[in-house]
Amino acid sequence: MPKVKHHEGIRRNSSAGRITQAYVTLLTVIMIVMALATMTVVGVHLVHNKREDATQMMTVLKKSFSNYKPDWDYWRDTAPINVHSTFVRVSVTHKSGDSVYFYSHNAKKFLRNNWNQWPLLKNIQYQPDHGLYYHISDRAEYQGPLSIRYEVWMSLNNVIQLFKIIMSVIIMVTIAGLFIGSWLIGLVAKRLNVPLVSLTEASKQVTRRNHAPYTDGLPVPEGPLEVHDLAVEFNKLLDSLNRQLERDHQFVSDASHELRTPLAAIRGHIELLQRHSLDHPEIVPTSLATISDESRKMQALIESLLQLSRMDQAELELSPFNLTELAATVAQRYQEQLHQNLVMTGDGNPIMAIGNPDSVEQILLALLANAGKYSPADSTITVNVRVSAGHAKVSVLDQGSGISDADKEKIFARFYRVDESRSKKIPGTGLGLAIVTRLAGLNNGTVTVRDNQPQGSIFTLSLELDQQPETTA
User: Fold this and answer.
1) What's the CATH class of domain 225-311?
2) Where is the HAMP domain (predicted)?
3) What is the pTM of this model?
4) Which single residue of 88, 112, 163, 245 could bond 104 by disulfide (Cβ 3.0 to 4.6 Å)?
5) Over the chain (473 residues), what is each successive 10-residue block's mean pLDDT?
Protein backbone atom coordinates (compact mmCIF):
# COMPACT_ATOMS: atom_id res chain seq x y z
CA MET A 1 0.00 0.00 0.00
CA PRO A 2 2.74 2.57 0.73
CA LYS A 3 4.24 1.91 -2.72
CA VAL A 4 0.85 2.42 -4.37
CA LYS A 5 0.40 5.72 -2.52
CA HIS A 6 3.93 6.72 -3.50
CA HIS A 7 3.29 6.08 -7.20
CA GLU A 8 -0.04 7.90 -7.00
CA GLY A 9 1.72 10.86 -5.43
CA ILE A 10 4.31 10.82 -8.23
CA ARG A 11 1.59 10.80 -10.88
CA ARG A 12 -0.18 13.71 -9.20
CA ASN A 13 3.07 15.66 -9.04
CA SER A 14 3.94 14.99 -12.69
CA SER A 15 3.36 17.64 -15.33
CA ALA A 16 0.46 15.67 -16.81
CA GLY A 17 -1.12 15.28 -13.35
CA ARG A 18 -0.73 18.95 -12.54
CA ILE A 19 -2.15 20.00 -15.91
CA THR A 20 -5.15 17.70 -15.34
CA GLN A 21 -5.68 19.04 -11.82
CA ALA A 22 -5.47 22.60 -13.09
CA TYR A 23 -7.98 21.79 -15.84
CA VAL A 24 -10.42 20.20 -13.39
CA THR A 25 -10.16 23.15 -11.00
CA LEU A 26 -10.52 25.71 -13.78
CA LEU A 27 -13.48 23.91 -15.37
CA THR A 28 -15.20 23.54 -12.01
CA VAL A 29 -14.79 27.23 -11.23
CA ILE A 30 -15.96 28.21 -14.73
CA MET A 31 -19.03 25.97 -14.49
CA ILE A 32 -19.96 27.31 -11.06
CA VAL A 33 -19.60 30.89 -12.25
CA MET A 34 -21.58 30.12 -15.41
CA ALA A 35 -24.32 28.40 -13.39
CA LEU A 36 -24.62 31.30 -10.98
CA ALA A 37 -24.56 33.84 -13.79
CA THR A 38 -27.11 31.90 -15.86
CA MET A 39 -29.48 31.38 -12.95
CA THR A 40 -29.17 35.01 -11.92
CA VAL A 41 -29.83 36.35 -15.41
CA VAL A 42 -32.65 33.90 -16.11
CA GLY A 43 -34.19 34.44 -12.67
CA VAL A 44 -34.13 38.20 -12.95
CA HIS A 45 -35.57 38.01 -16.46
CA LEU A 46 -38.37 35.62 -15.44
CA VAL A 47 -39.26 37.61 -12.33
CA HIS A 48 -39.36 40.74 -14.45
CA ASN A 49 -41.73 38.99 -16.86
CA LYS A 50 -43.86 37.83 -13.94
CA ARG A 51 -44.03 41.39 -12.67
CA GLU A 52 -45.22 42.59 -16.05
CA ASP A 53 -47.75 39.76 -16.26
CA ALA A 54 -49.00 40.55 -12.76
CA THR A 55 -49.34 44.23 -13.64
CA GLN A 56 -51.38 43.34 -16.72
CA MET A 57 -53.41 40.89 -14.66
CA MET A 58 -54.14 43.62 -12.15
CA THR A 59 -55.23 45.97 -14.93
CA VAL A 60 -57.62 43.37 -16.38
CA LEU A 61 -58.90 42.58 -12.90
CA LYS A 62 -59.77 46.22 -12.29
CA LYS A 63 -61.57 46.44 -15.61
CA SER A 64 -63.58 43.32 -14.78
CA PHE A 65 -64.93 44.89 -11.61
CA SER A 66 -68.51 46.06 -12.11
CA ASN A 67 -71.67 46.30 -10.00
CA TYR A 68 -69.51 46.13 -6.88
CA LYS A 69 -68.12 42.69 -7.71
CA PRO A 70 -65.58 41.19 -10.16
CA ASP A 71 -66.73 39.56 -13.38
CA TRP A 72 -64.69 36.33 -13.30
CA ASP A 73 -65.79 35.21 -16.75
CA TYR A 74 -64.57 38.45 -18.30
CA TRP A 75 -61.37 38.22 -16.30
CA ARG A 76 -60.65 34.65 -17.43
CA ASP A 77 -61.35 35.50 -21.06
CA THR A 78 -59.22 38.63 -21.20
CA ALA A 79 -56.36 37.65 -18.83
CA PRO A 80 -52.95 37.64 -20.62
CA ILE A 81 -51.84 34.33 -19.06
CA ASN A 82 -53.21 31.00 -17.86
CA VAL A 83 -55.43 31.70 -14.85
CA HIS A 84 -55.46 28.13 -13.51
CA SER A 85 -52.28 28.73 -11.51
CA THR A 86 -53.27 32.27 -10.55
CA PHE A 87 -55.36 33.16 -7.55
CA VAL A 88 -57.21 36.41 -6.94
CA ARG A 89 -58.92 37.89 -3.91
CA VAL A 90 -60.93 41.08 -4.02
CA SER A 91 -62.10 42.69 -0.80
CA VAL A 92 -64.81 45.38 -0.84
CA THR A 93 -64.94 47.46 2.32
CA HIS A 94 -67.92 49.64 3.09
CA LYS A 95 -67.75 52.86 5.02
CA SER A 96 -69.29 51.06 7.95
CA GLY A 97 -66.29 48.79 8.11
CA ASP A 98 -67.93 45.66 6.82
CA SER A 99 -65.96 43.80 4.17
CA VAL A 100 -67.05 41.44 1.47
CA TYR A 101 -64.51 39.06 -0.10
CA PHE A 102 -64.60 37.67 -3.63
CA TYR A 103 -62.33 34.77 -4.66
CA SER A 104 -61.32 33.40 -8.02
CA HIS A 105 -61.52 29.67 -8.72
CA ASN A 106 -59.87 27.72 -5.83
CA ALA A 107 -58.45 30.95 -4.39
CA LYS A 108 -60.34 30.59 -1.13
CA LYS A 109 -59.02 27.08 -0.63
CA PHE A 110 -55.52 28.21 -1.63
CA LEU A 111 -55.49 30.94 1.00
CA ARG A 112 -57.18 28.85 3.68
CA ASN A 113 -54.72 25.96 3.44
CA ASN A 114 -51.83 28.05 4.63
CA TRP A 115 -52.67 31.57 5.56
CA ASN A 116 -49.35 32.21 7.29
CA GLN A 117 -47.17 32.66 4.22
CA TRP A 118 -43.36 33.00 4.40
CA PRO A 119 -42.12 36.13 2.70
CA LEU A 120 -38.73 35.59 1.04
CA LEU A 121 -38.24 38.65 -1.07
CA LYS A 122 -40.38 41.60 -1.92
CA ASN A 123 -43.56 40.34 -3.69
CA ILE A 124 -42.33 36.71 -3.56
CA GLN A 125 -44.01 34.36 -1.08
CA TYR A 126 -43.62 30.70 -0.29
CA GLN A 127 -46.29 28.18 0.77
CA PRO A 128 -45.23 24.64 1.71
CA ASP A 129 -48.16 23.03 -0.08
CA HIS A 130 -48.04 25.11 -3.25
CA GLY A 131 -44.50 26.50 -3.70
CA LEU A 132 -43.38 29.97 -4.74
CA TYR A 133 -45.79 32.69 -5.79
CA TYR A 134 -45.47 36.25 -6.97
CA HIS A 135 -47.87 38.45 -4.97
CA ILE A 136 -49.12 41.86 -6.02
CA SER A 137 -51.79 44.05 -4.44
CA ASP A 138 -53.42 47.34 -5.18
CA ARG A 139 -56.18 49.50 -3.68
CA ALA A 140 -58.80 51.55 -5.39
CA GLU A 141 -61.18 54.10 -3.93
CA TYR A 142 -64.58 54.58 -5.52
CA GLN A 143 -66.99 57.42 -5.06
CA GLY A 144 -69.19 56.53 -2.24
CA PRO A 145 -68.55 54.40 0.78
CA LEU A 146 -66.40 51.83 -1.03
CA SER A 147 -62.74 50.81 -0.76
CA ILE A 148 -61.57 47.93 -2.89
CA ARG A 149 -58.34 45.93 -2.44
CA TYR A 150 -57.12 43.68 -5.25
CA GLU A 151 -54.65 40.87 -4.55
CA VAL A 152 -53.14 38.50 -7.10
CA TRP A 153 -50.93 35.45 -6.55
CA MET A 154 -49.14 34.10 -9.62
CA SER A 155 -47.30 30.79 -9.48
CA LEU A 156 -43.52 30.77 -9.90
CA ASN A 157 -43.26 26.98 -9.91
CA ASN A 158 -42.62 26.95 -13.65
CA VAL A 159 -39.67 29.24 -12.99
CA ILE A 160 -38.38 26.86 -10.30
CA GLN A 161 -38.82 23.96 -12.68
CA LEU A 162 -36.84 25.82 -15.32
CA PHE A 163 -34.15 26.51 -12.74
CA LYS A 164 -34.02 22.80 -11.92
CA ILE A 165 -33.67 21.92 -15.59
CA ILE A 166 -30.91 24.50 -16.07
CA MET A 167 -29.10 23.29 -12.97
CA SER A 168 -29.44 19.65 -14.04
CA VAL A 169 -28.09 20.44 -17.49
CA ILE A 170 -25.18 22.44 -16.05
CA ILE A 171 -24.33 19.67 -13.58
CA MET A 172 -24.47 16.99 -16.28
CA VAL A 173 -22.39 19.09 -18.66
CA THR A 174 -19.90 19.80 -15.87
CA ILE A 175 -19.59 16.13 -14.91
CA ALA A 176 -19.26 15.08 -18.56
CA GLY A 177 -16.76 17.86 -19.17
CA LEU A 178 -14.75 16.86 -16.11
CA PHE A 179 -14.58 13.18 -17.07
CA ILE A 180 -14.12 13.58 -20.80
CA GLY A 181 -11.99 16.71 -20.49
CA SER A 182 -9.77 15.17 -17.81
CA TRP A 183 -9.24 12.10 -19.97
CA LEU A 184 -8.46 14.17 -23.07
CA ILE A 185 -6.28 16.64 -21.18
CA GLY A 186 -4.42 13.71 -19.60
CA LEU A 187 -3.77 12.22 -23.03
CA VAL A 188 -2.65 15.57 -24.46
CA ALA A 189 -0.47 16.30 -21.42
CA LYS A 190 1.17 12.86 -21.65
CA ARG A 191 1.73 13.34 -25.35
CA LEU A 192 3.31 16.74 -24.72
CA ASN A 193 5.45 15.22 -21.98
CA VAL A 194 6.78 12.38 -24.16
CA PRO A 195 9.91 14.37 -25.17
CA LEU A 196 10.52 15.34 -21.54
CA VAL A 197 10.03 11.74 -20.36
CA SER A 198 12.43 10.53 -23.06
CA LEU A 199 14.92 13.15 -21.97
CA THR A 200 14.56 12.04 -18.35
CA GLU A 201 15.04 8.36 -19.26
CA ALA A 202 18.13 9.21 -21.30
CA SER A 203 19.49 11.19 -18.35
CA LYS A 204 18.89 8.21 -16.07
CA GLN A 205 20.78 5.96 -18.47
CA VAL A 206 23.71 8.37 -18.32
CA THR A 207 23.70 8.58 -14.52
CA ARG A 208 23.52 4.77 -14.15
CA ARG A 209 26.96 4.48 -15.71
CA ASN A 210 28.85 5.18 -12.52
CA HIS A 211 32.34 4.72 -13.90
CA ALA A 212 31.81 5.16 -17.63
CA PRO A 213 32.60 8.42 -19.41
CA TYR A 214 29.64 10.55 -20.42
CA THR A 215 30.11 10.04 -24.14
CA ASP A 216 26.48 9.92 -25.30
CA GLY A 217 24.40 13.04 -25.76
CA LEU A 218 20.73 13.27 -24.89
CA PRO A 219 18.12 13.12 -27.66
CA VAL A 220 17.04 16.56 -28.83
CA PRO A 221 13.29 16.65 -29.63
CA GLU A 222 11.88 19.02 -32.21
CA GLY A 223 9.34 20.34 -29.72
CA PRO A 224 8.12 21.71 -27.43
CA LEU A 225 10.58 24.58 -27.65
CA GLU A 226 11.33 24.55 -23.90
CA VAL A 227 12.22 20.84 -23.93
CA HIS A 228 14.26 21.31 -27.11
CA ASP A 229 16.26 24.13 -25.48
CA LEU A 230 16.65 22.09 -22.27
CA ALA A 231 18.05 19.13 -24.22
CA VAL A 232 20.45 21.40 -26.10
CA GLU A 233 21.72 22.94 -22.85
CA PHE A 234 22.02 19.48 -21.26
CA ASN A 235 24.10 18.31 -24.20
CA LYS A 236 26.32 21.35 -23.86
CA LEU A 237 26.76 20.51 -20.19
CA LEU A 238 27.50 16.86 -21.00
CA ASP A 239 29.97 17.92 -23.65
CA SER A 240 31.71 20.14 -21.11
CA LEU A 241 31.77 17.25 -18.63
CA ASN A 242 33.14 14.95 -21.32
CA ARG A 243 35.96 17.33 -22.10
CA GLN A 244 36.69 17.86 -18.42
CA LEU A 245 36.64 14.11 -17.78
CA GLU A 246 38.93 13.48 -20.70
CA ARG A 247 41.27 16.19 -19.47
CA ASP A 248 41.25 14.71 -15.98
CA HIS A 249 41.96 11.21 -17.29
CA GLN A 250 44.69 12.53 -19.53
CA PHE A 251 46.08 14.59 -16.67
CA VAL A 252 46.25 11.58 -14.35
CA SER A 253 47.82 9.48 -17.09
CA ASP A 254 50.37 12.16 -17.99
CA ALA A 255 51.19 12.90 -14.36
CA SER A 256 51.74 9.19 -13.70
CA HIS A 257 53.93 8.93 -16.78
CA GLU A 258 55.97 12.03 -15.89
CA LEU A 259 56.50 10.86 -12.30
CA ARG A 260 57.31 7.31 -13.31
CA THR A 261 60.51 8.31 -15.17
CA PRO A 262 62.31 10.10 -12.31
CA LEU A 263 61.06 7.56 -9.80
CA ALA A 264 62.44 4.73 -11.90
CA ALA A 265 65.78 6.53 -12.21
CA ILE A 266 65.95 7.21 -8.47
CA ARG A 267 65.00 3.64 -7.56
CA GLY A 268 67.51 2.24 -10.06
CA HIS A 269 70.40 4.21 -8.64
CA ILE A 270 69.36 3.37 -5.06
CA GLU A 271 69.42 -0.35 -5.92
CA LEU A 272 72.77 0.18 -7.67
CA LEU A 273 74.18 1.78 -4.55
CA GLN A 274 72.78 -0.95 -2.34
CA ARG A 275 74.46 -3.67 -4.42
CA HIS A 276 77.76 -2.19 -5.55
CA SER A 277 78.61 0.89 -3.45
CA LEU A 278 80.90 -1.07 -1.12
CA ASP A 279 82.83 -2.74 -3.94
CA HIS A 280 82.75 0.25 -6.30
CA PRO A 281 82.73 3.44 -4.25
CA GLU A 282 83.46 5.48 -7.40
CA ILE A 283 79.78 5.13 -8.52
CA VAL A 284 78.45 6.83 -5.39
CA PRO A 285 78.92 10.48 -6.47
CA THR A 286 77.42 9.85 -9.92
CA SER A 287 74.40 8.01 -8.51
CA LEU A 288 73.82 10.64 -5.84
CA ALA A 289 74.01 13.40 -8.45
CA THR A 290 71.46 11.57 -10.60
CA ILE A 291 69.17 11.03 -7.61
CA SER A 292 69.46 14.71 -6.69
CA ASP A 293 68.74 15.81 -10.27
CA GLU A 294 65.74 13.51 -10.66
CA SER A 295 64.34 14.51 -7.25
CA ARG A 296 64.55 18.18 -8.26
CA LYS A 297 62.62 17.33 -11.42
CA MET A 298 59.99 15.59 -9.29
CA GLN A 299 59.85 18.56 -6.93
CA ALA A 300 59.38 20.99 -9.82
CA LEU A 301 56.70 18.78 -11.34
CA ILE A 302 54.82 18.40 -8.05
CA GLU A 303 55.02 22.13 -7.37
CA SER A 304 53.63 22.85 -10.84
CA LEU A 305 50.81 20.35 -10.27
CA LEU A 306 49.98 21.94 -6.93
CA GLN A 307 50.06 25.38 -8.53
CA LEU A 308 47.59 24.25 -11.19
CA SER A 309 45.39 22.64 -8.57
CA ARG A 310 45.32 25.81 -6.47
CA MET A 311 44.53 27.93 -9.52
CA ASP A 312 41.39 25.86 -10.23
CA GLN A 313 39.73 27.57 -7.26
CA ALA A 314 41.80 30.77 -7.19
CA GLU A 315 40.51 34.29 -7.64
CA LEU A 316 42.83 37.20 -8.30
CA GLU A 317 42.34 40.81 -7.30
CA LEU A 318 42.37 42.82 -10.51
CA SER A 319 43.28 46.48 -10.76
CA PRO A 320 44.68 48.93 -13.34
CA PHE A 321 48.47 48.78 -13.82
CA ASN A 322 51.08 50.02 -16.28
CA LEU A 323 51.63 47.09 -18.66
CA THR A 324 54.41 48.86 -20.56
CA GLU A 325 56.42 49.50 -17.40
CA LEU A 326 55.86 45.95 -16.10
CA ALA A 327 56.98 44.35 -19.40
CA ALA A 328 60.11 46.55 -19.53
CA THR A 329 61.04 45.62 -15.95
CA VAL A 330 60.57 41.89 -16.59
CA ALA A 331 62.59 42.06 -19.84
CA GLN A 332 65.44 43.90 -18.13
CA ARG A 333 65.64 41.45 -15.22
CA TYR A 334 65.35 38.32 -17.36
CA GLN A 335 67.94 39.40 -19.97
CA GLU A 336 70.77 38.00 -17.84
CA GLN A 337 69.20 34.52 -17.87
CA LEU A 338 68.87 34.38 -21.66
CA HIS A 339 71.50 33.51 -24.24
CA GLN A 340 69.46 35.36 -26.88
CA ASN A 341 69.31 39.10 -27.39
CA LEU A 342 66.14 40.58 -25.78
CA VAL A 343 64.51 43.61 -27.41
CA MET A 344 61.63 45.75 -26.09
CA THR A 345 59.31 47.45 -28.64
CA GLY A 346 56.03 49.40 -28.51
CA ASP A 347 54.33 52.60 -29.58
CA GLY A 348 56.13 54.61 -26.90
CA ASN A 349 53.06 55.49 -24.84
CA PRO A 350 52.34 53.92 -21.43
CA ILE A 351 49.54 51.35 -21.77
CA MET A 352 47.30 50.78 -18.78
CA ALA A 353 45.73 47.33 -18.45
CA ILE A 354 43.41 45.72 -15.90
CA GLY A 355 44.75 42.62 -14.20
CA ASN A 356 46.91 41.29 -11.41
CA PRO A 357 50.50 42.58 -11.89
CA ASP A 358 52.16 39.66 -10.05
CA SER A 359 50.41 37.00 -12.12
CA VAL A 360 50.99 38.93 -15.36
CA GLU A 361 54.69 39.07 -14.47
CA GLN A 362 54.63 35.30 -13.94
CA ILE A 363 53.03 34.86 -17.40
CA LEU A 364 55.72 36.98 -19.06
CA LEU A 365 58.51 35.09 -17.30
CA ALA A 366 57.03 31.76 -18.45
CA LEU A 367 56.71 32.98 -22.05
CA LEU A 368 60.28 34.32 -22.03
CA ALA A 369 61.56 31.05 -20.57
CA ASN A 370 59.68 29.10 -23.24
CA ALA A 371 61.10 31.32 -26.00
CA GLY A 372 64.60 30.96 -24.57
CA LYS A 373 64.41 27.14 -24.50
CA TYR A 374 63.25 26.75 -28.09
CA SER A 375 65.22 29.54 -29.81
CA PRO A 376 68.82 29.52 -31.12
CA ALA A 377 71.35 31.21 -28.86
CA ASP A 378 72.31 33.77 -31.54
CA SER A 379 68.69 34.80 -32.26
CA THR A 380 66.62 37.72 -30.96
CA ILE A 381 63.60 37.60 -28.65
CA THR A 382 61.26 40.61 -28.86
CA VAL A 383 58.73 41.84 -26.29
CA ASN A 384 56.09 44.07 -27.87
CA VAL A 385 53.44 46.05 -25.95
CA ARG A 386 50.60 47.69 -27.84
CA VAL A 387 46.88 48.44 -27.97
CA SER A 388 44.91 46.44 -30.53
CA ALA A 389 41.21 45.76 -31.05
CA GLY A 390 40.35 47.56 -27.82
CA HIS A 391 42.65 45.41 -25.66
CA ALA A 392 46.06 45.80 -24.09
CA LYS A 393 48.40 43.21 -25.61
CA VAL A 394 51.92 42.07 -24.86
CA SER A 395 53.63 39.66 -27.26
CA VAL A 396 56.79 37.56 -27.03
CA LEU A 397 58.30 36.93 -30.47
CA ASP A 398 61.00 34.29 -30.96
CA GLN A 399 62.98 33.04 -33.98
CA GLY A 400 62.84 29.35 -33.18
CA SER A 401 61.67 26.44 -35.30
CA GLY A 402 58.00 27.42 -34.88
CA ILE A 403 54.91 25.37 -34.10
CA SER A 404 52.83 23.47 -36.62
CA ASP A 405 49.15 24.31 -37.08
CA ALA A 406 48.16 20.91 -35.67
CA ASP A 407 50.10 21.60 -32.48
CA LYS A 408 48.94 25.18 -31.93
CA GLU A 409 45.68 24.00 -30.32
CA LYS A 410 47.44 21.43 -28.11
CA ILE A 411 50.46 23.21 -26.68
CA PHE A 412 48.41 24.82 -23.90
CA ALA A 413 47.28 21.39 -22.61
CA ARG A 414 48.97 19.89 -19.59
CA PHE A 415 52.12 17.80 -20.27
CA TYR A 416 51.93 18.34 -24.02
CA ARG A 417 55.35 18.60 -25.67
CA VAL A 418 55.65 19.50 -29.36
CA ASP A 419 58.63 17.31 -30.20
CA GLU A 420 59.12 14.38 -27.86
CA SER A 421 62.64 13.56 -29.10
CA ARG A 422 63.65 17.19 -28.78
CA SER A 423 61.82 17.64 -25.47
CA LYS A 424 64.05 15.08 -23.80
CA LYS A 425 67.01 17.40 -24.39
CA ILE A 426 65.13 20.49 -23.18
CA PRO A 427 64.29 20.66 -19.46
CA GLY A 428 60.71 21.27 -18.41
CA THR A 429 57.61 19.67 -16.97
CA GLY A 430 55.22 20.36 -19.85
CA LEU A 431 53.01 22.42 -17.53
CA GLY A 432 54.36 25.91 -18.19
CA LEU A 433 51.92 26.91 -20.92
CA ALA A 434 49.03 25.25 -19.06
CA ILE A 435 49.83 27.46 -16.07
CA VAL A 436 50.08 30.49 -18.39
CA THR A 437 46.65 29.74 -19.84
CA ARG A 438 45.08 29.39 -16.41
CA LEU A 439 46.69 32.60 -15.14
CA ALA A 440 45.50 34.48 -18.22
CA GLY A 441 41.95 33.27 -17.55
CA LEU A 442 42.14 34.47 -13.95
CA ASN A 443 43.08 37.91 -15.34
CA ASN A 444 40.06 37.86 -17.69
CA GLY A 445 42.51 37.57 -20.55
CA THR A 446 43.62 35.11 -23.23
CA VAL A 447 46.87 33.70 -24.58
CA THR A 448 47.21 32.90 -28.28
CA VAL A 449 50.01 31.73 -30.56
CA ARG A 450 50.70 32.40 -34.22
CA ASP A 451 53.61 32.10 -36.61
CA ASN A 452 56.41 34.67 -36.70
CA GLN A 453 57.88 35.68 -40.02
CA PRO A 454 60.17 34.46 -41.46
CA GLN A 455 60.37 31.84 -38.70
CA GLY A 456 59.47 31.33 -35.06
CA SER A 457 56.38 31.87 -32.95
CA ILE A 458 54.51 34.79 -31.39
CA PHE A 459 52.76 34.28 -28.02
CA THR A 460 50.33 37.12 -27.22
CA LEU A 461 48.69 37.90 -23.89
CA SER A 462 45.52 40.00 -24.28
CA LEU A 463 44.10 41.92 -21.28
CA GLU A 464 41.32 44.40 -20.68
CA LEU A 465 42.29 47.98 -21.48
CA ASP A 466 41.91 50.60 -18.76
CA GLN A 467 40.07 53.41 -20.58
CA GLN A 468 42.73 53.89 -23.18
CA PRO A 469 41.83 55.10 -26.70
CA GLU A 470 42.19 52.45 -29.38
CA THR A 471 45.23 52.85 -31.61
CA THR A 472 46.37 51.06 -34.71
CA ALA A 473 48.73 48.19 -34.03
Assistant:
1) mainly alpha
2) 190-246
3) 0.47
4) 88
5) 45 66 80 81 79 82 79 78 78 80 83 61 75 83 74 82 83 82 78 75 70 63 75 80 72 66 79 80 83 76 65 74 91 85 86 89 87 87 90 90 80 63 50 80 89 89 76 43
